[in-house]
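ZP: hey, is the glutamine complex queued? I don't see it on the tracker
AM: it wasn't, my bad. submitting now with these inputs:
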Amino acid sequence: MNIQSRLPEVGTSIFTVMSRMALEYGAINLSQGFPDFPVSQELIELIYKNMKAGHNQYSPMPGAPALKQSIAEVVTKTYHRPTDPENEVIITAGGTEAIYSSITALVKAGDEVIVFDPAYDSYDPSIRLNGGIPVHIKLKLPNFSVDWQEVRDKITPRTKMIMINTPHNPTGSVMSESDLKELEKLALEYGLIVLSDEVYERIIFDQKEHQSVLKFPALASQSIAVFSFGKTFHATGWKVGYTVAPENLTREIRKAHQFITFSVNTPVQLAFAEHLANPDNYLHLGTFYQRKRDFFLGQIKGSSLKPIPSYGSYFQLLSYESVSDLNEFEMAEWMTKEKKLAPIPVSAFYHDRADHKLLRFCFAKGEDTLERAGAILRKL
Ligand code: GLN
């Protein structure tokens, strides 16, 4: 039988590959992004309570009403965007499903979608599996910023969507208010849908403010914002996220979501609904992770690796330019096998595998782990 792959050049995700390699070689795993500290006990008890109370069957397809309600309240308060829980929220199986369902529902064969590289690894294949054409534009070093003139130049009559991600994985860059204003201008002028991956909304540092598409009313009217409870509540394995989008977009995304996931597990949704009621449960996340970032940076002081400033997310890029000529994939593999520390090669996030001698390290870890990683990095 001759199977014609629809994604011939795609292998296993770099996160899976590096986590597996870390395990195999007994390396400290700062590759795949996930916290190594526990979920709140209260949240776990809330899930148990809901399971015991018999909330174990399908939730409504768009999400448990109580959770949609809590989300609408939080979004309205945080971004001053009045949000209708009935028609503007969908609970998804994590941010990745939210992105996939949005693209599936809205991108037709031949539609172009603008993606900024380095880009999260699911964006490009999600577009192509749906017949769309990814148009890759590189963020500009050293700050990984957008050249909006270049974006304008790449827009064609076929451009349907533009994807952004702030705070940014893998670089830790964040978009400014003026970036969002430029984006708004383009979206309105060319009638583009904006798919905005904001899963690190609460992990932002140095007094910077997260610039959500939801804060700009005209932009919000053409945007889908994607969020993740996994990132905010240290529970990446539960795979629960959500979209916030105007009714006309939400209606279409639900049509795809209902055949991809149908609905997300009920007791976890109900637990989040209650947990969100107390802002203390999420408001201090930026401070929490800033301390971790600074602790990690403190650990690598005096090493030959050069940090690229991280203003958000739980990732830190380090340049090894002065240490080795290996390419990023080779360097990541060498570090994992020989030095027992696993990072992610940033070139995995470039569709042309551009190599800048940068590695991504996840600092969502306990201090002892970061200390042990620092000791290895200082000796490189
Ligand atoms: N978002 C996580 C990261 O960037 C990984 C998620 C995954 O493994 N698919 O590391």
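AM: back. The radius of gyration is 20 Å.
ZP: great, adding it to the tracker
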